[in-house]
Amino acid sequence: MKKEDFFEVLGELNDDIVKGAKAPVKKKMNWKIWGAAACLCLVLTGGVLYNAFKSVGFNAMIANYYNTTFHNASLYGTNIDIGGKQAWYHEVSIRSEKLEKYIGEPYQSADSRAWYIPAGITNLKYLILQDSEDNYSLWEFSSFIVDKGASYTYGDVMKTIYGVNSAEDIVRITTTPSTNSNTALHRSIQKEIGTRIYTDRESIEIFYQIAENVVCYGVGSESKGDPNRFSYSFFTDERDKPTSEESTYGTRFIKITLADGTTIDSWKYDALSGSFFEYGSIFTQPLSDEDVYKLNDIFDIK
Length: 302
Known about the structure:
Strand order of the largest sheet: 7-10-14-13-12-11-8-9
Radius of gyration: 24 Å
Number of helices: 10
Distance between the termini: 57 Å
Structural class: alpha+beta
Largest sheet: 8 strands, antiparallel
Number of strands: 14
Strand content: 25-35%
Shape: globular
Order of helices and strands: HHHHEEHEEEEEHEHEHEHEEEEH
């Protein structure tokens, strides 16, 4: 075991492990008792460290990174041939030595560089790059690269990148309201809407059938949605453009969780224009009225 790995695991152990420690007892103990205690301590410590190493898989590591680290998508990007399509990946700032233990199956290599799928992962959301100097870097899928005016579907993304071929591959869908504004009023609206988790098969099936046919225009595209297309009970009389309160009510951040723990967490649904959009200025073709009504029923947007 490397020294760095040992201390890294110690850093990832829950504080609860050490909270129960008692103050040292000054009373003398028999050497046999001390020996037994020492053996027990070694066994317990070994078990804790073994379980810590065993449980910190790639998905758990990356989830902890996103939960505890302030980060933005890197400006560094690269395109990779994925199933005959050019896919755009951006770099995630995780140090090389942390990634080395997550090297899995080789994916492709060229020009003294090799791409690997993270250990234990069966999809292409993340790839690890080994450069000519044996440094490792992590890259996350953003979108497919298409010519201006061209498009692809979310079904292409789900199948090619995430290995999702049907609604059965989706475990749950989690939605949260927009947090773009953080005034007292907006916080009260966010609390009112709350985080919602959908696990019933009917809702997931409806969502999948709609999402797989959504047409996407890739990075740097322009919005084709009309923010005043639909009106709702929470609308005010100001109709020039939606207010920030209306946008909070009418927007849902979406996280799709797959059976292996992978998440698709860059999608947003805008009920005002009736369309999906993604981080990084990735816009889509607006949905049909029928599909908007179906999604609004699931997400309780009225």
